[in-house]
Amino acid sequence: MITAIVLINCEVNRIPEAAEEIAEIPGVSEVYSVTGDADLIAMVRVRAHEELADVIADRLSKVKGVLGTATHIAFRTYSSHDLEAAFSLGLDGE
Hints:
With 94 residues, this protein is α+β, with helices and mostly antiparallel strands. It has one domain: Alpha-Beta Plaits, CATH 3.30.70.920. Helices cover 27% and strands 32% of the residues. A 4-stranded antiparallel sheet has the order 2-3-1-4, covered by helices on one side. 20% of the residues are buried. The mean pLDDT is 90. This is Transcriptional regulator, AsnC family. One of its GO terms (biological process) is response to amino acid.
């Protein structure tokens, strides 16, 4: 599974509508409205690298109100939730 974090700049008056439309795109797992340099952050999860172009360049970037994107591809995931789940399964070495 390939995970990409997409920072999205939008027209201010279209942020909620753009977020809802982006959230409906297959391959987009979450969309966050945020403060800072970006207006929205979308988490994209696909099986093959080639699918990123379909989701981001061909669909997400063309949503009405989207002005630009910056995509960051994740190498590894570190999560305390994953560690807690592993320990609850008895994988703590005991």
